[in-house]
Amino acid sequence: MADADLSQLVKAYDVRGVYPDQLDEGLAELFGAAFAEVTGAREVVVGHDMRPSSPALVEGFARGAAARGVDATVIGLCSTDQLYYASGSLGLPGAMFTASHNPARYNGIKMCRAGAAPVGQDTGLREIRARVEEAMRTGLPARRTEPRAEPRSGRVTTRDTLASYAAYLRGLVDLSGIRRLKVVVDAGNGMAGHTVPTVFDGHPLDLVPMYFELDGTFPNHEANPLDPKNLVDLQARVRAEGADLGLAFDGDADRCFVVDERGEGVSPSAITALVAARELAKHPGGTVIHNLITSWSVPEVVREQGGVPVRTRVGHSFIKQEMARTGAIFGGEHSAHYYFKDFWNADTGMLAALHVLAALGGQEAPLSALLGAYQRYTGSGEINSTVEDQHARTEAVRALYAGRDDVSFDDLDGLTVTTGDWWLNVRPSNTEPLLRLNVEARDEEMMAAVRDEALKTIRG
C-alpha cells in the first residue's frame, strides 16, 4: 500500500496524487470501503478516465466497497460528467477516477452522493479521510451487520452508460433543425475522444477530430485548455479547415473551451452569458449563478433576459451549494465549468457545447458576430504571482485604492476592488504561496493600466 500522507492527497474537493507513490490499489480499496460507509449506500457507481493506472484503482475501490457489503456498478471508461449522469439517473453515490488535466503520473478520485450531490471537505470528504487514516493504522474494522444477519459481500458488476448519457443530453438540447456546421474538436487524448462521437452522432455536424486516441500520457499537449498554449493546435486547425468553430475539452471532459471561426479563443464568461440567455428562455425569471470573477456581462445579460443573477465565491462547491439553495437553473465559472439544474446541478462541458452549437446553427451569422452581444469588456485572464505573505500583499492592494470616492471594496473571496469603469480581484491560493489577479475594464488600455499597477503592488 502507498505510504501516503493524506494531508497531501485529500484536497478540498477530491483526492489527487502521484501513482503509485501516493495513491495505489491498496489505498483505493480503503477509500472504497470508507466511501461506502460514509454514504450509507447499498450500491455505488464507479467510472474512470483513460490513464493507465485507472482500471486497477477502480478494481481496488470496488473491492473495498464490496468488502463493506455494498454493490459496485462499474461503468468503465467515461467522462466525469458521464459519471455524474450515472449517479443522477441511477440515484447512486458515485466515484470517478481521474486527475483531470494533471500529468500522466497522477490519478485521483472525484466523489459524489446520490443525485450527483457534491462530496467536499464539509460534505463527507473529511470523514472519508478520517476513516481511511484509521484503516491505514489498524486495518479495516469488522463490518457492522444487522442483528442475527449474515455478513453480506457486495457484488461487482459492469454497465455501459454512454448511449443513455448521450441520449439524455440530446433530449435537453435539440440540434435537429440547425444548419450544417463544421466543428473541430480537440480531445487532448482525453475522454472527449470517447464521448463526442456518440453525442454528436446523427446531428448535422461535420466533425473534424483532433487527438481522439485515448492516451493518458498526453503525447500531443496537456489536456488543459485553460492554458492558452494548449489551444494553439485547435486554433490553427479551425483556420485551416474553414470551420465554424472549435471545441477543446480537458482530460476528463467536464470542461469545454470554445474557439470561434477566426481561431480566436472565446471567454468562458461569454459562453456563460449565452447559455444563461438560452436557459432563461426556457425558464423565465430563473436564477443564474456566476462566480465573482466572471465578466460584468454575465449579470447584465441575466438581468436583461429577466433573470436573477447571484454572485458567489470561486469553486464548484460554492456554485452547487447556491444552486441548491436558490433553485437556480444554471451556473457558470471563468474556468469553463458550467452547471445545469437539468443535470442534477452538476457541471457538464458537453451540454454547454451543445447549447453553443444550437445557438450558432439556429441563425446565419458567424460565431464571432453571435457572441458580440456577450463580449462587452476586456479581461486580463488570471495572473499568478508568487508572494511570501499573501495577506500583506492583498492589504497593499487595498491601500493602493483606499480613500478614493469612486472605489468600493468587498471581501467575498479575496479582495475585490470596483469602480464604474473597471474591477479587480486578488485571491490567495489555498495550496500554494500565490496571489491570483483578475482585472476587467471597459477597454484594453484601461485594463492594462489597472493590471500593471496592481501587479507592481502585488510583486513589490
UniProtKB/TrEMBL annotation:
Residues making up the signal peptide according to the UniProt record: none
Residues in Alpha-D-phosphohexomutase alpha/beta/alpha domain copies: 8-135, 165-263, 271-377
Cited CDD domains: PMM_PGM
Family as reported in the entry's similarity comment: Belongs to the phosphohexose mutase family.
NCBIfam families tied to this protein: PRK09542.1 (NF007088)
Residues of the Alpha-D-phosphohexomutase C-terminal domain: 382-454
Pfam families attached to this UniProt entry: PGM_PMM_I (PF02878), PGM_PMM_II (PF02879), PGM_PMM_III (PF02880), PGM_PMM_IV (PF00408)
Keywords: Isomerase, Magnesium, Metal-binding, Phosphoprotein
Biological process, per Gene Ontology: carbohydrate metabolic process
Any GO MF annotation of the entry: intramolecular phosphotransferase activity
Cofactor(s) the protein needs: Mg(2+)
The name this protein goes by in its record: Phosphomannomutase/phosphoglucomutase
